[in-house]
Each structure stands twice: as C-alpha cells, then as structure tokens.
Specification:
six-stranded parallel beta sheet, binds nicotinamide-adenine-dinucleotide, about 375 residues
Length: about 375
C-alpha cells in the first residue's frame, strides 16, 4: 500500500479547520501537525485531530516529517510562508488569493521553479460539477463565439465580520475588500471560462462598512478573445443574494447560480431552429403580457420555484456566512495535489493558473484609482 502523505496546517481559525476536515476525509492523506501564532487556536485544532500544535512555521518544519503544508493565514502573509515551506523542500497548498501584490507572486513563482516542489492555490469552485461542465463545454467550443461574460457577487458581510480580525478589510493583509477576498472565486471562474482579460475600466467604493478597502466594485472588462464582460460585487447586499456567473455565446449560453448550473442552452441540442427573435424574447413577451393581466408576479414566482427545484438550487450560505463552508471542494483540490505529487504532474490550479485572477483584481484597483482604462501585461 502507498504511504499516506503527511500534512501540516498553518492558520487554525476559519479556513484552517476546513482543511483539517478535508484532509481527514481523504484515504491518502494524514494530518500530523498544526501551527498558529495564537497557541490556544493551535491547541484547539490539535486536540480535535490528536496532532501536535506549534506556534511558528519554522518549528513545525524543523520538528515534523511533513510532505505538504497548507497555508491558511491572512492573505498578505502567504508569500513569505509559502516561500519558507518551498525552500524547506516541502510541497505547499496555499489559500486564495495566492498573494496580494505582483512582487510577492513573482517571488513565489521564482522560488517554486528553483525548489522544484509543487505549489497549488485553493480555488475550490473549479471542482464544482457545474464549473467543470461549463469549462468542458467551452473547451469543446459548444457556446460558439463567446460574446459576453459576467460575474455578479451580491454578498453580505456584517461590520462585526470585518472587526473580527485586525487584518480584515486592510490593504496590507487582506489586499482589498470584496474583490480580493470574496469575489476572487467568481473572478477566477469567469476568466477560466472566458479566457484571460486584456483591459479593465472600473469603479470601487466603500459605502456601508468602516474599513480601508472596497465593499462595492463594478468593472467592465475586455477579454483577450475580444468579448466584453462585467464584474459587479459587494459585501453590502443584505442579507446576501445569489451569486451568478453568466457565459453567453452565439451558439449557447450558461448561467451558474450559487455553484449550480441554473441555465444551459446549446444550439447543437435544439431539435428545431430558434427563430429570429430567440427564446428569451418570446418568454419576455409572454411574461409582459401576463404582467399586464396582473398574474405575472405569481406565475414568475412559481416558475422560479420550479426552475430552482429542477436545478437543485439551494441557498448560497457563503453569500451570507463565511464559516458556512463545505470541505468537499477543498478535499477534491487536496486530492488533486496528491495526484500531482504521486504522478510528478501539475496541480490543476498551480501558481501560474492562480496568478491571473489576482492580476485582474489589481488591475481593477488601479483603474478605480487612476480613472483610466488599464491594460494587463
Ligand atoms: N477558499 C475559501 O473559501 C476561503 C474561505 C475563507 C478564507 N479563505 C482564505 O484563507 C486565509 C485565512 O482566512 P481566515 O478567514 O481563515 O482567517 P482567520 O483570521 O480566521 O484565521 C487566520 C489564522 O492565522 C493565524 N495566523 C496569523 N498570522 C500567523 C502566522 N504568521 N503564523 C501562524 N499563524 C498565523 C491567526 O492567529 C488565525 O488563527 C485568507 O487568505 C482567506 O482569503 C479562503
């Protein structure tokens, strides 16, 4: 039997325990140590999994035979810790965002090349069945010419959330607000489906929280394939509303709502030709007729409920509560890292793959600051 890979976690508060659950769920993985600068937090997680607690990464690296270290600390600490782990010859899985500045990301990629270890960056929604299906269809060119891609993230985070950690909502350690922390998942999926972003024009603001960084942002994008797109995101939409990623093409369209595929229509599956005015036009014409008769609201509610039932839609708890996370996406991504280590392959989301979403976000900040269109390198 192949030996289990031995994991150590750094950062034991919100997301660290999710990594611990994910590791515990995998037959090929074993948690052996945890580290937190706060000894009580390290002890609590260590007790739960009967492993050894540490208060510094250096002590854990010196004291344990770990194969992989999972970095779950504030975002602006990722670079230094990831490099420290890679220089010790261990593989590393780091939480999103991989880092918050161009310079730190360059350094991480350089050290990864020099050390030859594997680097994976958490973007667990790439492993959702809906994301994989849409990405496969993009690869097959099933949507035809992509013409528009949107990511809409109307989430809610209370002031108490931002006050719960001194690093939250700061430029130095969170690296941004709703974009760098919450929306990076949707931005990563959008660019994974639509391709890289070439240029950006954006507005950001802080409207409903006391914090340094933005709690609302709107960006207009131009993808390298020529299609435009938008990002609209906030953590001030009470009580936290459906996340949507919309992909529109000349031969098909798809909408992911709260991680589930809520709409998919492909020309190649049509048994008869769609007319000159398309389906949406017909539906909206009928809907507006019903509205005029006073029955529209009720029938729309019933149709929405039926559509939600059909698609298996559920409340997106992470739109409202950052702790309400399933460990399953993380488990799939950690399993992908184990595969990459065993086969000497590349993790699905390696450092190069994780870099572009951060570049898009930094481009949005630059455009909002300079009031100019920003072209990405
Ligand atoms: N993938 C996801 O869905 C997801 C969800 C939440 C958070 N995250 C990411 O995870 C990271 C951590 O977020 P969080 O919400 O868990 O933060 P948190 O504040 O809840 O936990 C961070 C922990 O790191 C510890 N810490 C800080 N500096 C340290 C150091 N130098 N050495 C050891 N421990 C240290 C803190 O004491 C704290 O316990 C962030 O980068 C965030 O973006 C990802």
């Amino acid at each position: 039997m192949t030996e289990k890979l031995r994991f150590g976690i750094v950062g034991c508060e919100v997301i660290g325990p999710i990594h611990a659950q994910a590791i515990a769920s995998l037959p090929d993985a074993q948690l052996v140590a945890v580290t937190d600068i706060n000894p009580e937090k390290a002890q609590r997680l260590a007790d739960e999994y009967a492993v050894k607690p540490y208060t510094t990464l250096a002590e854990m690296l010196a004291g344990e035979q770990v194969d992989v270290v999972n970095i779950c600390t504030p975002s602006g600490r990722h670079g230094e810790q990831v490099c420290q782990v890679m220089r010790s010859g261990r593989h590393v899985i780091v939480e999103k965002p991989m880092e918050i500045s161009h310079a730190a990301i360059e350094q991480m990629l350089r050290v990864q090349q020099e050390s030859g270890v594997k680097l994976a960056v958490i973007s667990q929604h790439r492993f959702d069945p809906a994301s994989l299906q849409v990405h496969d269809l993009v690869e097959e060119q099933a949507f035809g010419r992509l013409v528009l891609g949107n990511a809409i993230v109307p989430w809610w985070r209370s002031q108490a959330y931002y006050d719960s950690g001194a690093w939250r909502g700061t430029w130095q350690l969170d690296g941004g607000g709703v974009l760098m922390n919450q929306s990076i998942h949707s931005i990563d999926l959008l660019q994974w489906f639509m391709g890289p972003v070439r240029s950006i024009y954006a507005y950001t603001d802080t409207l409903a929280h006391h914090m340094e960084t933005e709690d609302v942002a709107v960006a207009v994008l131009r993808f390298e394939n020529g299609a435009p797109g938008t990002i609209a995101a906030t953590t001030s939409a009470y009580p936290g509303v459906t996340t949507r990623i919309e992909i529109f093409g000349a031969k098909g369209s798809a909408v992911i709502e709260d991680d589930n595929l809520s709409y998919l229509h492909l020309a190649r599956e049509d048994s008869q030709e769609i007319g000159a005015y398309g389906i949406a036009h017909e539906v909206s014409k009928r809907a507006s007729l019903r509205s005029a008769e006073g029955s529209y609201t009720e029938s729309k509610k019933a149709a929405a409920a039926a559509a939600a039932k059909r698609s298996g839609a559920r409340i997106n708890t992470s739109a409202q509560n950052p702790v309400a996370l399933s460990f399953r996406g993380h488990a799939l991504q950690i399993a992908d890292m184990i595969r990459a280590i065993r086969e000497d392959g590349t993790p699905v989301v390696d450092g190069q793959a994780a870099r572009h979403p951060v570049e898009i976000i930094l481009g949005i900040y630059e455009s909002a600051r300079t009031h100019k269109e920003v072209t990405l390198p």
